[in-house]
Specification:
By secondary structure, this protein is an alpha+beta fold. 35% of the residues lie in helices and 23% in strands. Helix 3 links the parallel strand 3 and strand 4. Bound molecules: glyoxylic acid (GLV) and manganese (II) ion (2 copies). One manganese (II) ion (MN) binds next to loops.
């Protein structure tokens, strides 16, 4: 029987990290890339790793790494991200970081020098909640980014990514130094963020694949006019047109579920005024599918739906694709190792597809990669009430630790 007592502190560490939020009067956690609160969480993680004897360092994009040196330089990597969406929860991402730190610390105490080296990384960014780009941290360690693409990134306050880096003592010209070639495999532990494990009363999800996803920004231009004097039939109301587009996208989401899904998460009237017909509206589209061919079909249908509504309401539209991530399967032999470890520990498990995006999605393009999920209460995530019970947090940590130890020692 495993003594779970040492693992109880994971929940306390997560509560402490949840204090670093940009919007303290709002429920939940808002910790976007390179904000002062993000920087405070980064310092906290450095201290946590230092306290566990993992010799931490910060790389050229702000990822925090800690490491146990093995007999070989070949390295098994674990971790996740420590940024959040606006008004997100205390578990998404940072659970995998804290549990990874703790797993390495336990392994270090037990078997001083493993065969392979082990590393934990706290990725600087995964959510794309400040700049229109996702997974900057994992892209940087793979060298999977383009200077021209990154140079264009600006947040909604007009601050460029490069300026934000500079404010944190980072120089974009050194970004290439974050690139690593000694990683052999990546294991990410994460809360499920959906209801399947809880509904099935299952302790551990072994991820089979990660949905591909795409994000667009749609600009709808009509004509601003007087709200009292302009007859309805003469209007080119950008908001009414955008509303019809949102409903059409939602209908497509219903048609594609469960193999695909679509969401409008942002809708903004530009220079809106209470007594004016809206002339300019912008909205986002996030759509995902288990297979890239399905996502492509869904993309075509969403585009047609937007164009049809634009014609009907006499407005002009411009669709700007912002980010794309391919669908990826998880590595079969790593999945088997996780399953076998969960079984040995006596925990129930099931295969599960991830409809959420993860750093693992990027890393899987270059390395054998697998993910472990634990249940999310009521399937809630990207929500202030996101919650995972302490027992589930401990279960996931034990399976992670056991998997890493197996991979490092054979
Ligand atoms: C990231 O959490 C995403 O799936 O959008
Ligand atoms: Mn998230
Ligand atoms: Mn996440």
């Amino acid at each position: 029987m495993i003594d779970l007592n040492p693992y109880r502190r994971i929940e306390d560490d997560l509560q402490q990290l949840a204090q670093y939020t940009e919007e303290p009067t709002r429920k939940g956690v808002t910790r976007r890339l390179y904000s002062p609160q993000w920087a405070a969480a980064q310092r906290h993680l450095v201290q946590l790793m230092r306290g566990e004897g993992l010799n931490p360092w910060v790389d050229a994009v702000g990822n925090v790494h800690g490491r146990i040196e093995g007999r070989s330089r070949h390295t098994i990597l674990t971790g996740s991200h420590f940024d959040t969406v606006r008004g997100g929860g205390a578990y998404d991402g940072v659970y995998g970081v804290v549990a990874g730190i703790f797993a390495l610390s336990q392994i270090k105490k037990r078997c001083r020098v493993p065969e392979k080296s082990l590393e934990v990384v706290a990725f600087c960014e995964e959510e794309g909640s400040r700049f229109p780009m996702t997974c900057l941290g994992s892209r940087a360690i793979l060298g999977a980014w383009q200077p021209e693409e990154v140079a264009r990134l600006v947040d909604d306050q007009g601050t460029s990514l490069f300026e934000a880096m500079q404010m944190n003592g980072l120089d974009w010209r050194s970004m290439g130094e974050a690139n690593r070639s000694d990683y052999e495999a990546y294991i990410e532990l994460h809360v499920e963020q959906g209801p399947e494990l809880e509904d099935a009363q299952c302790a551990i999800g072994v991820v089979s694949e990660i949905f591909g996803q795409e994000r667009w920004l749609v600009s709808v231009r009509g004509d601003s006019a007087h709200a009292g004097t302009t007859p309805l039939a003469r209007r080119q109301d950008a908001l009414v047109a955008a509303s019809a587009m949102v409903l059409a996208i939602n209908t497509l989401g219903y048609r594609y579920e469960p193999i695909g899904i679509a969401t409008v998460g942002i809708l903004e009237v530009i220079h809106g005024s209470i007594n004016c017909v809206p002339g300019h509206v912008q909205f986002s589209v996030d759509f995902r599918a288990a297979q890239d061919s399905v996502r492509q079909r869904l993309a075509d249908e969403i585009r047609h739906a937007i164009e049809d509504e634009a014609k009907r309401y006499g407005v002009r539209v411009n669709i700007s694709p912002k980010t794309v991530a391919q669908a990826v399967p998880m590595h079969e032999s790593l999945r088997n190792t996780i399953s076998e470890r969960a079984r040995a520990i006596g925990l129930s498990q099931m295969p599960i597809a991830s409809r959420a995006g993860h750093d693992a999605q990027i890393i899987a393009q270059a390395l054998p990669t697998a993910m472990i999920f634990v249940p999310s209460a009521q399937g809630l995530s990207h929500h202030p009430d996101e919650y995972t019970h302490r027992q589930h947090l401990m279960n996931g940590s034990v399976v992670l630790e056991s998997t890493l130890e197996k991979l490092a020692n054979g």
